[in-house]
């Protein structure tokens, strides 16, 4: 696949700083190019890794960042399941990103209204694009191969028109969520998956090396005009037979 780089690190300890540098380098490039940096975030273990490593970067300037969420759970912001809530406490409250630069859901709405409201916020933030073109999306992958809140064999995998879709029957709790769709994900200038731990080894092999039957959701992330990174640690990469790059801390992408 053109443009895909699979990069393996000894452990997540070495991966983290390289991820943070990828974010800041793409931010600098975007700000020079078009005056701002648009970043889509995912939850899970990515929150603590990214927050820790970005805060360790010298002279971090987020004043021209616009941040959205690749998916979000329909819970209040003080709920421990809220991805925005976690980033607010661990990262946003400690950097100079303007409040107007953080695009959040409205958790007081029904799941359908919430998706429509978030669609409007993204359209306002990206007025010139049919589908929002983010400079960088950071994605995770579940042990079932899902990414964002796009789950295997779910009808949302075939969505082609909506920017943000509601989901009321998530197989992973909480059941109500909103998620970016594949047209948005695949419009991004850069996409980086972060996948660590031995529990991901089998599904990572399926996603990166192909499988019989329908492609898993994470395998359907193929940016149309962008770059695609898979940043993984040795335990997650244990079953791979494809050619990979191996980097250590201090390396740059």
Automatic annotation (TrEMBL):
Enzyme class: hydrolase
Reaction(s) this enzyme catalyzes, per UniProt: 6-phospho-D-glucono-1,5-lactone + H2O = 6-phospho-D-gluconate + H(+)
InterPro entries membership: 6-phosphogluconolactonase_DevB, 6PGL, Glc/Gal-6P_isomerase, NagB/RpiA_transferase-like
Domain Glucosamine/galactosamine-6-phosphate isomerase: 14-230
Pathway(s) it belongs to: Carbohydrate degradation; pentose phosphate pathway; D-ribulose 5-phosphate from D-glucose 6-phosphate (oxidative stage): step 2/3
SUPFAM superfamilies: NagB/RpiA/CoA transferase-like
Keyword tags: Hydrolase
Similarity comment: family membership: Belongs to the glucosamine/galactosamine-6-phosphate isomerase family. 6-phosphogluconolactonase subfamily.
Protein name: 6-phosphogluconolactonase
Organism: Larimichthys crocea (Large yellow croaker)
